[in-house]
Design a protein that fits this description.
This protein has a 3-stranded antiparallel beta sheet with strand order 1-2-3, with no helix packed on it. It is mainly α and 152 residues long. The N terminus is likely disordered. It is built from 2 helices and 3 strands, in the order βββαα. Helix 1 runs antiparallel to helix 2. Bound molecules: zinc ion. Zinc ion binds next to loops. This is Zinc finger GRF-type domain-containing protein.
Length: 152
């Protein structure tokens, strides 16, 4: 057990682990040490048997804080999952609207071919242009929802 009084006696942080891999700053997600940073082998979360381990953050003062921080982590995880669920629904909806519009455009083109009237032709071209603009807009909206979680 370490206390604040002997912190100055702490060994200096390692740069490499026992099998010579560089150590990196990582975060613990366990209920006992939620969000606590440590230095560990790059293979730490890939089942490394490496014993090199060094806490960077001090321990939370008591179980109340640990529980609160752990709850926050869980809450954020749920919110993220919820957000991506909504984006997926939106993407499906946009995809459906896009294919519906493309079908309508295809039917309109068929009608256009059958039609001999130049007036109707001109009108149809205007409608077609409008459709193209709408589809481009839907396309750009689809791209906007393709965001990925950013690394912080
Ligand atoms: Zn290692």
């Amino acid at each position: 057990m370490s206390s604040s009084s002997n912190r100055s006696n702490r060994p200096s942080p390692p740069t490499h682990c026992e099998h010579d891999q560089p150590v990196i700053r990582q975060t613990s997600w366990t209920i006992d040490f939620p969000l606590r940073s440590f230095l560990g082998c790059v293979e730490y979360y890939n089942g490394s048997k490496c014993k090199t381990f060094y806490w960077l953050d001090p321990e939370l003062p008591n179980d109340y804080y640990k529980q609160e921080v752990f709850n926050l982590i869980q809450k954020e995880k749920r919110m993220k999952e919820d957000k991506y669920g909504k984006i997926r629904d939106l993407e499906r909806e946009i995809e459906f609207q896009k294919s519906t519009m493309e079908k309508e455009m295809f039917l309109l083109q068929l009608e256009l071919k059958e039609s001999k009237s130049s007036v109707l032709l001109m009108f149809a071209e205007i409608v077609m242009d409008a459709f193209t603009v709408v589809i481009k807009e839907v396309d750009s909206k689809t791209k906007m929802t393709e965001c990925r979680p950013s690394q912080s």
